[in-house]
Design brief:
By secondary structure, the chain is of the alpha/beta class. The protein has helices at residues 21-35, 40-67, 89-95, 98-126, 143-157, 166-179, 181-205, 209-236, 240-243, 257-265, 286-296, 318-326, 348-376, and strands at 5-11, 14-19, 72-78, 81-86, 251-252, 271-276, 279-285, 334-338, 341-346. Strand 8 and strand 9 (341-346) form a beta hairpin.
Length: 377
């Protein structure tokens, strides 16, 4: 989903991104307002109300995350809420625990519903004849009523047991607790897909454009989540020894920067393990060597190398290593070690090529195995 999003800024250290689906809803809101005899500006205001409801939800969830000691790295805002990314693997693992996940799941919807009820109370006190319960609840012709109902409806929708809504995540956790494994997660996703199809059909029957769009969005999101679960299954069965580079360049901690740059020029690597007496002691990038030479002149590799990085064992899963590459320090290089000796390396650049070759190799083996069985028959 990140590829269909764009950044809108960083707030309190958290990167915030908008999903492109918001733009589709913006066009739909303006078109809907114009078609019903209202102005395009009222349709734009209706869209801002949905955005406001999503922001309220995510502020509440960010406060809840902080109360659990979870550090956020980024939030992807979707029309139905937001998808958080946590700063570390430990935070991600803790957030996935059923006790925390269930609490986080109810915080956002309750914040929206509470905000909507407060707005109802304020509006009823100021103008008792406003007709807050009149239908349609969300319309460009009654923006004050729509302001409150947008909050209520977003909260209620997120209680539906459909991924990626909050209720869907709780349901998936329940399936996993009961059955365990990827198969249980897929059951929850399939259930969500059926409900999303029902929302689309209901939206068509009731001529409710908002319900139909939400159903379509949830259906697409559930499909992407299903693909993500399948990818995780494949990735988790692969070990580091299957995809690591075994032919690579290391740099000596006592080498000069000029000598190191000369070695780097003749290598396809961007980041290099640094060793002393064959043991891993650090890592340094080609760019880091070049910048150090420009700034301070010639020196030694040990003076510019980083000593903070993750390592992997040969039997670690690829999924574990991918998490290390995408979170925390040392993201450009994960040395694969036995004891203190480097026996391979993993980089983001080599992973896609190694995985492609590995998949082709497995397909070839499966084809040969089938052909052998047919010959025996």
């Amino acid at each position: 989903m990140r590829t269909w999003s764009f950044p809108v800024g960083r707030y309190l250290g958290v990167e915030v991104r908008f999903h492109a689906f918001f733009l589709l809803l913006l066009g739909t809101s303006i078109t809907f307002a114009t078609a019903t005899g209202s102005s395009g500006s009222r349709g734009f205001t209706l869209w801002l109300m949905l955005l406001f409801a999503v922001v309220i939800r995510e502020i509440a969830r960010a406060i809840a995350a902080a109360s659990f000691g979870l550090e956020l790295r980024s939030i992807l805002l979707l029309p139905t809420g937001g998808l958080p990314t946590y700063a570390t693997q430990d935070d991600t693992a803790r957030a996935a625990k059923p006790a925390i996940e269930k609490r986080m799941a109810v915080v956002g919807p309750l914040a929206n519903i509470a905000t909507g009820l407060i707005l109802f109370g304020v509006m009823a006190g100021i103008s008792p004849g406003l007709g807050l319960l009149d239908r349609p609840w969300v319309t460009p012709d009654a923006l004050l009523r729509s302001l409150a109902w947008t909050q209520i409806l977003l909260g209620a929708i997120n209680f539906l047991p459909v991924a990626p809504l909050d209720g869907g995540r709780v349901l998936r956790g329940g399936f996993s607790s009961a059955g365990g494994g990827v198969a249980s997660a897929q059951q929850a996703i399939k259930f969500g897909q059926y409900l999303a199809i029902g929302m689309v059909i209901m939206g068509i029957v009731l001529v409710n454009l908002v319900l139909m769009l939400i159903g379509i969005f949830v259906l697409v999101a559930a499909h992407l989540e299903d693909q993500g679960v399948l990818l995780q299954t494949k990735v988790d069965s692969v070990r580091m020894r299957d995809v690591m580079l075994t032919e690579f360049t290391t740099l000596s901690a006592s080498a000069t920067l000029e000598d190191a740059l000369e070695q780097a020029i003749h290598s396809l690597q961007d980041v290099f393990p640094v060793v002393r007496a064959g043991n891993l002691v650090g890592a340094v990038s080609r760019q880091g060597i070049f910048e150090a030479l420009q700034t301070d002149g010639n020196g030694y590799v040990q003076g510019v190398m980083t000593r903070s990085f993750h390592t992997a064992q040969p039997n670690d899963s690829l999924l574990k290593t991918l998490q290390r590459i995408t979170t925390g320090v040392g993201a450009q290089l994960v040395p694969v070690v036995e004891g203190e000796r480097v026996i391979g390396i993993i980089t983001p650049q080599n992973l896609s090529q190694s995985m492609s070759i590995l998949n082709q190799s497995k397909k070839l083996q499966e084809r040969n195995a089938r052909a052998s069985e047919q010959d025996q028959d």
